[in-house]
Amino acid sequence: MRRLYIQSIDNFKIKEGKILFSCLISGKDIKYATKVGKQTINFVVGEINLPSRWEVSFRYDKSTGKLLLFPYLLGSKDEKDFSQGDVLLNSLLTALGSVEYPFDLNDLNPVETKFYNQLVTLNVAIADIYAADDRLFIELIPAVQIKSVNE
């Protein structure tokens, strides 16, 4: 199976409610398949080296515990130099962008450690996620449980 890789992330900026960055997506011998009706159409994409600029708006819904991400492809530099694969991937990423994607953050795994014959479990709940002053803030509510361990 051929894969796409993010080779680099540059120009990373955090603003209120959004993250902006540039990245280089690359891969070799890339193939893409899609269904149209009952037919499967296979595309041989080939090599990809796609520089792109992104704006990802986000908000945290406290009532549901979901982080909502809204990626938007701002465009790419030097589109005249794109290969056929770059054009296809750029079109696909444009189509997948501009849609809000929810991520459920309610079920974070606890952190457990043994300390002096005791099992210490740290559960965290996310209270809020927001951005300000070029920083991303994640407010956590910790809950610690300590149990004796019989050896």
Please render the helix and strand layout as text.
Elements: E1 5-15, E2 18-36, E3 39-61, E4 66-75, H1 84-96, E5 101-104, E6 111-114, E7 118-132, E8 135-148
Antiparallel strand pairs: 1-2, 2-3, 3-4, 4-5, 6-7, 7-8
- Given the C-alpha coordinates, what overall shape results? elongated
Distance between the termini: 47 Å
Derived structural class: mainly beta
How many helix segments?
1
Low-confidence parts, pLDDT < 50 over ≥5 residues? none
Beta-strand fraction estimate: over 45%
Q: How would you name the oligomeric state of the polypeptide chains in this document?
A: single chain
Tally of separate domains = 2
For the sheet with most strands, the description reads: 5 strands, antiparallel
Radius of gyration: 21 Å
User: Mean pLDDT score, rounded?
Assistant: 88
Give the % helix: under 10%
- Strand arrangement, largest sheet? 1-2-3-4-5
N-to-C series of helices and strands = EEEEHEEEE
Beta-strand segment tally: 8
